[in-house]
Amino acid sequence: MAPEFEAAAKEMKDKVRFVKLDTDKHPEISARLNIMGLPTLLYLDKFEGDEEGTAAKAVLKNRIEGALRMESILALCEHHFFGGPRPDQL
After folding, report:
1. 20 to 30 Å CA-CA from 21: which of 32, 40, 48, 73?
2. Mean pLDDT, to the nearest integer, of 16-36?
3. pTM
């Protein structure tokens, strides 16, 4: 999965931020995000609060457990962040 993830990150470099989490080094974050299996892809978007001075929160748009090809990762990014059609197949 790593090569596909890296290729998708390179393709969307200036549009979407891709982040890898080492679940062994950060078990508290893994638990908060309910990551039970690897690989897990989380599509998170920023939620802007209504009140000034409140921190932005992440909104989960999708969770995929299991490996995906680069094309599927890109199609899901287009759907979740740029209004593209939902992919029929992953």
Report:
1. 48
2. 94
3. 0.84
